[in-house]
Structures are given as structure tokens and as C-alpha cells.
Amino acid sequence: MHATRLARAAIATAMLAGLLTIAATPAAAATVEKTITQGIPLDGTLGGASATCGFKIELHSVGMEVSVRRYDADGNLVSELRQIHYDGYALNPANGKTITSKVSGPERWVYNADGTITATSSGSTVRTAPGAGLVSGFIGHSRVTLVPTGDVDEDGFPIYDEVDGSSSGQFLGNGGMCGILS
């Protein structure tokens, strides 16, 4: 089982690095677009952790993303694979205490012909503190199908309902951060 996971990770890494090309059928005249973005700031409030601890906890991190978009012969986006990695820290702004935060993993969006979207993600969030080790984290996989409602938001973007969702993995919760950051 462990070897299978390592093989899948190696294949995904090779695909993202452009080292592996998967042959398409001759009928699929697709276009592939790859972008690598580095130095992406991600700052905000960790709502779940703030609610659990009863005080504001901020996230400050910088990351990189590799994105591979596939378009069909008509130029329609049919799938997007994103690999992310962010390094940073969770901060209690009231006292300056921090916990290291690392987030990594791939996500894939498939835009189906019927207008639905299938979104899958796998990865990990690891938050550690000196002397305490792992105090909050998640490792796992989730899958959801998004179905268009026919409505749009105030910016004109379609609104979707989430159906057929599933997730598996371990979630340690946010409670382990409270004592360290208080």
C-alpha cells in the first residue's frame, strides 16, 4: 500500500514537472497550459481555529503553485490540476506567539460536459510548535461534485450546489493550538 502511494506521488510529481507525458488519443486535439507561480502571499484569519480557541488567530504564509490546464479542441477548459505548497505560521496577534504551518497537496477540477464539476483534493496541513510537536493538522482526501443551480452571484458567476461529497483522512482539530498561542 505504501509503495502504491509513493508511486502515485512520483507520477504526479513527474507530470507536474513536465517530465512525463501521457499520450492522448489522436481524436483529442487538446491544448495543455502549464504555469508555475512562486512567492504567493496567503494572509488571513483562521476562522475555525479562532472560534475553537476564543481569540483571533491569523495565518501568514507564502507559497507556490503549479497549474496544468487542459483544453479540448474547441478551447473549452476540461480539467485543471494544481499542486500547492505553502510555508508560514499561525499567529496570535495579541501576544505575538506563533506555530509553524505547512500546507501541501494536489487538487483536480474536471469540468464535465453536463455542466457539473468534479473536484478532488489530497494533501496535508501540518502545524507544529517547539517542544509540543504536531498540535494541529489534517491529512486526507476529499471529493465533491458541484451542480450548477442556474443562478449567478452579484458578480455574474454561476452558483453551484455541492452534492455527492466524501472525505477521508485524519483531522486533529484546532484545539491543540489554543494553549500554545494563548
Strand/helix succession: HEHEEEEEEH
Order of strands in the sheet with the most strands? 1-2-3-4-5-6-7
Count structural domains. 1
Largest sheet geometry:
7 strands, antiparallel
Could you say which structural class the secondary elements and strand pairing correspond to? alpha+beta
Distance between the termini: 40 Å
Say how many strands there are: 7
Shape: elongated
Average pLDDT works out at 86
The low-confidence runs, each spanning 5 or more residues with pLDDT under 50, are 1-26
Tell me what portion of residues adopts beta-strand conformation: over 45%
How big is the Rg?
19 Å
The tally of helices reads 3
Helix content: 10-25%
How would you sum up this structure, described in words?
With 182 residues, the protein is an alpha+beta fold. The protein has one domain (29-181). It is 16% helix and 59% strand. The chain has helices at residues 2-17, 47-53, 175-181; strands at 31-45, 58-71, 77-91, 98-111, 117-129, 133-152, 158-173. The chain has a seven-stranded antiparallel beta sheet with strand order 1-2-3-4-5-6-7.
Set out the fold topology.
Blueprint: H1 2-17, E1 31-45, H2 47-53, E2 58-71, E3 77-91, E4 98-111, E5 117-129, E6 133-152, E7 158-173, H3 175-181
Antiparallel strand pairs: 1-2, 2-3, 3-4, 4-5, 5-6, 6-7
